[in-house]
Design brief:
Length: 299
């Protein structure tokens, strides 16, 4: 009897090993499933805290085309009133500065040459004060050199210690007499800036005030849209009621820990497959044990 039992136990030893192998495989598969990134529930923050978080670590540079064509009164204000292109741009910029949370803000202006008028600062009152006093006479010179303006704006970003997010917003009607906008945008993008081009004015155009002989000026929407698209940026129609909200989209980048994208469907399917495989291994680990008990009883 004891010899037969010993022989039976010897035969069942591989089954024990197989049972343990399935059991530990189930544990390993479950560990792999748990290690995959999971979905996060968005954290709801109070409005003030959310505004601060929106701008945390962000550097915002606003660039204004101050050429004479920006005095054309064919832009719409927030209440539907008719404004000059420059006044509409300044109003949008003031709203953007308010919505920028804790971002550092700088302002560049330009006609024939771009100038950094306000370096990066957390002092919103000084930025708002400058924007309220902004006029066509804030910059000297004649003509329009948007390339120089964008270069001056991009120069506000420090070369060392880049922020988590850099945003450059250009307010212009797109009419340029000097320089190449595309080259300047490419250089700004190389500095890590998210580009946003706000087009002011109407596509139909209107006469430039105080210009002799009279000249018609129209917004170059197609040029601005293509430039934004070529450099993976944003184009915003400054005449639409939601222009202010659209300008805030580039600022919506949250810190990395809050902005991790949700796992793709392939990761979800992989997790499900791993869990099913773990359950199968766990079930198989019980089969040799059951047979062992049956063999012991029959013996």
């Amino acid at each position: 009897m004891s010899v037969r039992f010993a022989e039976s136990k010897q035969r069942l030893r591989p089954r024990r090993l197989l049972s343990r192998a399935f059991f530990f495989s189930a544990l390993a598969l479950l560990a792999c499933a748990l290690a995959l990134p999971g979905r996060r529930s968005p954290r709801v923050q109070p409005n003030a805290a959310r505004d601060e978080a929106r701008g945390a670590g962000t550097q915002l540079v606003m660039a204004f085309d101050l050429s004479r064509s920006m005095l054309c009164e064919d832009s719409a204000g927030a209440s539907g009133e008719t404004l000059s292109r420059l006044d509409a741009a300044a109003a949008l910029a003031r709203g953007l500065a308010d919505a920028a949370g804790d971002a550092e803000i700088a302002v560049a202006i330009g006609k024939s040459r771009g100038v950094l008028a306000v370096p990066l600062t957390h002092d919103k009152s000084s930025v708002q004060g400058f924007l309220r006093s902004l006029t066509e006479a804030s910059a000297s010179g004649r003509g329009t050199n948007i390339e120089s303006l964008v270069d001056a704006a991009a120069g506000a970003f420090p070369e060392r210690f880049p922020s988590q997010r850099r945003v450059l917003v250009l307010f212009t009607d797109g009419e340029a007499h000097e320089g190449t906008l595309d080259k300047a945008l490419a250089r700004a993008a190389e500095r890590g800036a998210v580009l946003c081009l706000a087009g002011l004015g109407s596509d139909e155009g209107t006469l430039v005030p105080g210009l002799e002989p009279p000249a018609l000026s129209a917004r170059q929407s197609a040029l601005l849209k293509k430039a934004a698209e070529d450099h993976k940026g944003f184009y915003v129609d400054g005449n639409t009621p939601d222009a202010g909200a659209a300008l805030q989209i580039p600022l919506a980048g949250a810190p990395p820990e809050d902005s991790a994208p949700p796992p793709s469907a392939s990761l979800d399917r992989l997790r499900q497959a791993l869990i099913l495989a773990a359950l199968l291994c766990l079930a198989l680990s019980q089969v040799p044990r059951f047979r062992f008990r049956q063999g012991t009883i029959n013996a």
